[in-house]
Amino acid sequence: MNARATIAKRQQRKIYPPLYIITPTYRRPEQLAELTRLGYTLKHVVNLLWLVIEDANKTSELVIETLNRIGVPYEYFLAPMPEEYKKTKKAKPRGVSNRNRGLQWLRENATEGVFYFADDDNTYDISIFEQMRYTRKVSMWPVGLVTKYGVSSPIIKGGKIIGFYDGWIGGRKYPVDMAGFAVSVKFLHERPQAKMPFKPGYEEDGFLKSLAPLDNAEIELLANNCTEVLTWHTQTKKNNAAEKVNATKYGDTNLMFIDKALVRP
Description:
31% helix, 3-stranded antiparallel sheet, globular, alpha/beta
């Protein structure tokens, strides 16, 4: 192969910055269905590692089998919610221990690229992953199906953030949805104390504030300058736990195999 052909081949082999997708999950009837839906979306995205982190005290063979079947490169961890929060009668800070475990893994194993908190009950247009992977510090975009406004988004005027549009502000500096921002791994390393707080309703705000100093002018605006909705907080309908299959009646049928594939809290 001559030099010109070699150069052309190298140019065709585009190098994509890595993406780290942090997904908290927990045991519930919809768990495998939601992981499957998200997993097959992520399968369309190159150079991606999926950090699946379960709020549990022991690993789930069903989750592992599902992740292996989907075929997206992944790491699977456990990060149970601290007992003090499990026992409270107030709102629980769900997903916080999972996401902080993901941040720990990034600090120990990653030096470049971008990470994103992708909940398994959301819906994503794959184009948002290609946009976010070039984030230099923090990027943001609108999220649909959130609160009474139907969307949560930075308010943009003249190419700059002048506020936030969200159905619940709650005194937050960053009233945004978890699905509406991504962060550079390098920027995280420069903020060694950054983490998500165990404070229901203020998880996103607390994490973004822990990245200080961060000026609004440094936040990159994706989704065509925040004019498009490419992620949605869809949420699957909750289902009751399935009743056990009657082994006496159906012990010699396929239902016994199906029963083993059902997630029960």
